[in-house]
Amino acid sequence: MTTDSPLACEIIAVGSELLLGQIVDTNSSWIGQELAAAGVASHHQVKVGDNLERLVAAIRTALERSGAVIMCGGLGPTQDDLSREAVAEALGIGRRTLNDKIVKLGLDKDALL
Questions:
Q1: Is the pTM of this model over 0.85?
Q2: Mean pLDDT of the chain
């Protein structure tokens, strides 16, 4: 299903296990279906391994071509999860500033990243 929605949302699936075929990425598929059902376009879905530089680059690229970005992982949050650090770096802000902004939005920072 395609949509002409003015809002486009890119999905970034994070995890080396996704690239190695150890885990099947069903999250991106489900998120894409839900976005389409809500009338939100999703023109790009990418998988990125557990590498800070590549994550930052993927986030920056996604932000350049989409109005929103959803990140999901192959194994869920882990101790070595780089998502917070990558988002903060891609936005050019510190991790503490990122957490403060999330809290100011009234959102649970631990549930988001």
A1: no
A2: 83
